[in-house]
Amino acid sequence: MPPRSLGSGTISFGLVSIPVKLYPAASSQSVSFNLLHAKCGNRIRQQRFCPVCNEVVEREGLVKGYEFAKDQYVKVSDEELEALEGEASKAIEISEFVPLSKVDPVYYEKSYYLGPDKGGEKAYRLLSDAMTQAGKVALAKFVLRGRENLVLVRSAQNGLMLHSMYFADEVRNFDEISKGESAKISGAETNLALRLIDELSSEQFNPEQYEDEYRQRVLNLVNTKAEGKEITVAEPQVHRAQVIDLMEALKESLGKKVAKEKKPAVRAKTAEPEKGKKRAQSAKK
Question: CA torsion 127→133→137→142, rounded to 10°?
């Protein structure tokens, strides 16, 4: 079943306009739980309680508040916020094109597929193909659900994708965190690390080979309990020992890789004499 469209918009660059539809590119499959009363097993109802008035507050008695100082709030109504929202425009107006390699993935927030809306097929195809050949992605602003978003449009999988992005002041400064600058790395350690990276490298990213094993274990547990079967608690996994000698750890890692690759070759060599014996026996007969 194809995904349901979240809305429509119009990509514009220069005098070219492309009507498009917006689709979710991914959805979380994490297992979610409800809170139950342990005594009776029924789902609880969360209530909003005011400790000053000592009463439960219903939804209609709530207003938004912004804390500008400790325990001091400014009340803001929904009507005031709606008046500040971006203009109800569906325009995705491209401001510039940049190389994808120059955009740090830390800015990505959510991903969407863009499909051509009625009458926009040719212009959509033109932009997708042209961006692929140019090796560039587009940056634009787009009002989504009343909020102004910085977005990136790129050509991917023979179509166009849109990524909502964080603004620069929303991304934390990495320089505030230690990156181990005082550590001394030898050339030999670097060479071994490069060899290990090369041994573990693949030409392509194959997401199908990675699965959420924890989610599957949780679902198996839930299904087993739902069927009334007995649950067997697995033994805790043994944690890896702490790495003390970095060089030894790198050498051991490379040694395991080489040993795995040599095993099939050993079998092939031992198989050859057997074939030779059979041929000799056949010749004698």
Answer: 0
* Alpha-carbon span 92 to 127, nearest angstrom: 13
Contact 119, 70 (CB under 8 A): no
pLDDT in tens, 229-241: 777 766 656 656 5
Average pLDDT over residues 48-60: 90
Check residue 6 and give its pLDDT: 82
Say how many C-beta atoms besides its own lie within 10 A of residue 228's C-beta. 6
Residue type at position 225: K
Q: What percent of the chain is modeled with pLDDT above 70?
A: 83
For the stretch 71-80, pLDDT in tens is: 899 999 888 8
Closest alpha carbon to 92 in 119, 121, 127? 127
Residue 144 has, within 13 A of its CA and on its CB side, a CA count of 22
Are the CB atoms for 103 and 161 separated by under 8 Å?
no
For the chain, give the mean pLDDT: 82
Residue 182, Cβ density class (10 Å: 0-12 exposed, 13-18 middle, ≥19 buried): exposed
Asked if residue 166 has pLDDT above 90, the reply is yes
Radius of gyration of the chain from its Cα atoms, rounded to whole angstroms: 30
> Exposed (0-12), middle (13-18) or buried (19+): which is 162, by Cβ within 10 Å?
buried
- What the block records as the tokens of 220 is 């198996």
**What are the E-state strand segments in 3-135?**
7-13, 16-24, 48-50, 55-57, 64-69, 72-76, 91-99, 108-116
CB-count burial class (<10 Å; 0-12, 13-18, 19+) for 280: exposed
Residue 147: CB partners within 8 Å, gap ≥ 6?
Answer: 85, 86
Q: Give me 155's structure tokens.
A: 């050509």
Backbone angles phi, psi at 228, to 5 degrees: 75, 15
